[in-house]
Amino acid sequence: MAPELHRELGGLPSAMGGSPGQAPGGLQTEYAFVLPRGFVDAAGTVHRDGVMRLATARDEITPQRDPRVRENESYLTVLLLSRVVTKLGSLTQVHTGVIEGLFASDLAFLQDLYRRINQEGHTAAAVTCPSCSHEFTVDVAGEQRLGES
């Protein structure tokens, strides 16, 4: 698979800077990713490479008290992602305004990644090549380089 297609599928090859974080004992706690479109900041810079960490109980409980969530339950996603996305391009901070400014496809990508690493415990996804219809599995967090198993 070409690196461009791999990037479109959300992978971040290790050679491109993707090194997942691990806690003592070998538990992976951080996952590198590449957004399908990217966040465009006020200067027009596109930020695609990022890191998401595992959520804690506090990450899931604290936003429940936020009045924005009480007014609109969908805002819970924005608050959760702003807590667990620790890096996005060259931004110094990923806050709610950044998450609110994501394209819908990028928000859906991050929601899926969040669900995969926090509920399912993996980042594998089944995909089909649009050109040849070959079915295969990719790691959407990009832990492996192409061709490695």
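the 2nd protein, sequnce then structure:
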Amino acid sequence: MTQNKREIKAPNDFKYDFIKLAPLMGGISLLLTIVSVILILTKGFNYGIDFAGGTEIQVKFEQAVTAEQLRAALVEAKVGDPTVQAFGGHSEFLIRLGLPEGSTDNEKNQALNASIDRVKATLASTFSLKPEGVLRVDTVGPQVGSELKKNGLLAAFYCFLVILIYVSIRFDYAYAPGAVLCLVHDSVLTLGLFSILGREVNVQIMAAVLTLIGYSLNDTIVTFDRIREKGPESKGKSLGYVINKAINDMLGRTVLTMGTTLGACLGLYLYGGGVIEDIAFTLIVGIVVGTYSSIYVAAPLIMVMDKFTPAAALPHGEATPA
């Protein structure tokens, strides 16, 4: 009897009790996910020309020019309502023009070509921009933009479906829902942040979101492997003990992986500029959210699923308090 009391009072052989905070963190995650979904459905996204259609003109000046000067000159030339984005420094810019109005495609194309010619003429007369200073001109029609948007959503859906099948085969059904819900959680929170901040969403950002899905999945799979490994070694222990032990064992690896990738992305965000800065921002948010979700979303959901579909590699039955 004394021996049993000592066993109950014995300290756990892990440092941090993550499962103790799992209900609270799960509630916060659920609330943030609901808020993000509401923002996405009501406020929507600031779509780039890849999805909304329009024209991008990348220019480089020989002298220092500010974005305000450039935009003021274009507005004065009645180009419309252009968006001007600097590419670092004061000489390279990205000019975005919306789709012109027109009753037919031919009229729209004529108006679009006229706008592009007006932009080039304005830059040449106001800032002495040479023809070679126009680095590229990209135009996307509304039909192509709609197709790209649909393909982006399909890519994300197929990604989640394949991951669900993969995790179900590699582990079992008790693990799979947690992995997929973890990735949905990461994607929705990241896109919700883009919605509330009004940052542009384009094909590059969708590629970055799919990249962070892969990053988050890798962290989750490594944690799942350790949970499955610790299960047979922890007979008589609770499932919460097994998950806590596994997360604590992987904590050093998680911190090192997060720190190195986060450092690289911060460097790209601070010094990359332009599209690279937007991609780096997406990855920074995804790395932080993905690391959090692998601990407080994916792993605790195993305990929920274990009540309905017990995992074969985990301890079951009456457990000794840990």
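Residues 222 and 250 are 8 Å apart (CA to CA). The first strand starts at residue 46 and ends at 47.
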